[in-house]
Each structure stands twice: as structure tokens, then as C-alpha cells.
Amino acid sequence: AKKAAAAAAKHAAHPAPVEAKPEASVTVSDTTESLVDDVLAGMGGTSQSDVLAALKQRSPLSLKLTHRMLVEGSTKSLDECLKMEMRAALRTIDTHDVGAAMGGGAAAPSWLPGSLADVGDVDVEALLAPLPHQEELRLPRWARKKAWAPIEAEMHHWYGE
């Protein structure tokens, strides 16, 4: 339990910057593996093997994509996060891994790429790249200003600016 708390404290001690700074960015491949390693190092006994078994059953591409979206989302507005979610959703639906997960068979899905190490930053970036202008999520101005202002204020209250 102490190791798990230390791993959580390590990640909490290095919050994402308020403004995205490309020169300060880290690669997803390094941070995803290190996050998994830290969590596993902080757990002992059967729990560790259960967590590792669960992670190994998941799509490596989806794990990297989720981690990147969490990191980038911490510095974006709600409007930008929803656009990022839309881009990822529209593109991942056509990936091999969604088909493998939806196969419905009793056998474990076969992921492509097959491991975290095999997923490149370019793979994740391709899923998050801007869509053509006419396909990009466009939210009404009133929604951005009126409806989301209280939500963003609450997020700033709890998570800082």
C-alpha cells in the first residue's frame, strides 16, 4: 500500500502545465509504460498479477490513446477536449482492434500492434489529428459560453487552472 501511495504521489507531484508547451512535452510511449510500471511496482501479491492480466487483455493502441488524451486534455478547454474525443471516436471505429474486440468469440482478441512497445507516437497522433474542416466538431457559440461555463468553473475549482 505504501508503494502504491508513493507511485500515486509521484504522478500527482508533476501535474500537467496550464498551457501546452511543445518543448516540454513527453512521448506517450515513455509515460504509458512508466505509469503502468509504477502502478504495478506499488502493488503486491495477487493484486499485481490481476492488474497485469487485465492490462494485457486490453488493446495497446487504446491504452496509449487513452493516456495521451488524458495528458493533453489536462491542458485543453472542454470544447477542445470534445473535439479530441470526436476525432478519436471517428477514427478508432475503423481500427483492427475495435473489430477484434467486437468479434464476440470466446478467444482473446488479437491486437495490432500487439504490445505497448509496438505502438508508436505516430499511431496515436494519427488518431488525434484534426479532421477536415467540414467534419470537425462545431459547437454552437451559446453552448460554449453559457452551458459550459459552470462546468469549466467547477473543473478549475477542483483541478486548478
UniProtKB/TrEMBL annotation:
Database matches in Gene3D superfamilies: 2-enoyl-CoA Hydratase, Chain A, domain 1 (3.90.226.10)
Name of the protein in question: Enoyl-CoA hydratase/isomerase domain-containing protein
Transmembrane regions listed in the UniProt entry: none
Keyword Hydrolase attributed: yes
Region (Disordered): 1-24
Record-linked InterPro entries: ECH_dom (IPR045004), HIBYL-CoA-H (IPR032259)
GO molecular function: 3-hydroxyisobutyryl-CoA hydrolase activity
Lineage: Eukaryota, Sar, Stramenopiles, Bigyra, Opalozoa
